[in-house]
Amino acid sequence: MQYLPTKIIFGKGVVxxxxxxxKQYGKKALIxxxxxxxxxxxxxxxxxxxxxxxxxxxxxxxxxxSNPSVETVQRGGGLAIKEKADFIIGVGGGSxxxxxxxxxxxxxxxxxxxxxxxxxxxxxxxxxxxxxxxAGTGSEVTPYAILTNPGIESKSSIVSEKIFPxxxxxxASYTQTLLREITLNTALDALSHSVEGFLSTRASxxxxxxxxxxxxxxxxxxxxxxESKDIPFQMREKLLYASLLGGMVIAQTGTTALHAMGYxxxxxKNIDHGRANGLLMAEYxxxxxxxxxxxxxxxxxxxxxxTIQEFKxxxxxxxxxxxxxxxxxxxxxxxxTLKTRNMNFTLKTMGExxxxxxxxxxxx
Length: 364
Ligand code: NAP
Ligand code: FE
Description:
- By secondary structure, the chain is α/β, with parallel strands linked by helices.
- The chain folds into two domains: 7-175, Rossmann fold (3-Layer(aba) Sandwich); 180-362, Dehydroquinate synthase-like - alpha domain (Dehydroquinate synthase-like, alpha domain, Up-down Bundle), CATH 1.20.1090.10.
- It has 14 helices and eight strands.
- It has helices at residues 14-17, 37-40, 43-53, 70-82, 94-106, 180-198, 205-221, 233-253, 257-269, 273-290, 295-303, 308-319, 327-338, 352-362; strands at residues 7-10, 28-34, 57-64, 87-92, 128-132, 144-149, 154-159, 167-170.
- The strands form two sheets. A six-stranded parallel sheet has the order 1-8-5-4-2-3, sandwiched between helices.
- α6 (180-198) packs antiparallel against α7 and α7 (205-221) runs antiparallel to α8 (233-253).
- The longest helix is centred in the C-terminal third of the chain and has 21 residues, at 233-253.
- The relative contact order is 0.11.
- Bound molecules: NADP nicotinamide-adenine-dinucleotide phosphate and fe (iii) ion.
């Protein structure tokens, strides 16, 4: 089964031209965003103009940090209730988008900090509109919200069909202010989604078609990151499109061991989400290839490299100086990874030894 209930509107100026759409969600909005970037890249201004045109009043919650915490979304949820919001608008990278999804849930469902990740989200959340300003997470079309979870020393996903955004406005203009580093890291996340979705126990013909198209586009763009030129708008649009496709893929397949491993690098070493996946990707693919997963070759060929060695060499170049990890850390992270549901979607059985080796070979 495939399910994707989000209205997707893609192109330059879509928030302005599609302003009419906002009014069907109510008279009062809560805008959920990060601390700075949406004020600088034009996205917040465009949203406010669209709301003004519809005579929709709004409040702004601009406190979402990267890898958001339960405390932050609880605060946002409290504000949404206090302000009597009819709908939520998430604008920014994956972090504000995910926070907005949970804030929408919290307006209708009670959750304690202590058992937050065990909460049953029975009631429908407020409708949520997503405006991504990074090109990587695909959160605008997924039923997931990922929060930091100190209880398991990692990150946990809230998974519910109820949190698919109602509308996603995708305008690559907003991504033009992204520094090269965040552009690359988020592109690595998009690639990771499409590669993992392609190599998932839940892959289907539909997701494979989507995943391969996303990998192909990213394969065309990635060599550009080796040059230190500005990234032109057309390339930004392609990145946003490839990221959207990656989101459509994982909305159906979920992610696999690779993402779960990456969460430990973010939790313990503060490595950006996309970079964490990128650092581990080549060794993860090499592992699957060594276990005779033939689809790895098609993924590599579609990306534009002939062999896993070529992929590894390209990634060495792309990632620059890598973070380091000890054997003890790798075993600890492996134990945490093994407890995640992502392991069920991974094509080959992996134990502590295999996971630890991938960590160590990637970060030596
Ligand atoms: P992010 O944490 O949302 O943002 C990273 C940084 O980029 C922030 O400093 C942000 O600044 C800045 N930024 C955002 N847009 C910008 C722009 N247009 N120009 C300049 N700077 C900009 O990063 P992300 O990689 O997009 O999201 C990562 C999160 O998404 C992780 O928590 C990850 O687990 C989650 N994720 C979710 C899904 C899903 O399906 N739900 C999938 C993959 C990943 P400000 O703080 O000032 O805005
Ligand atoms: Fe991701």
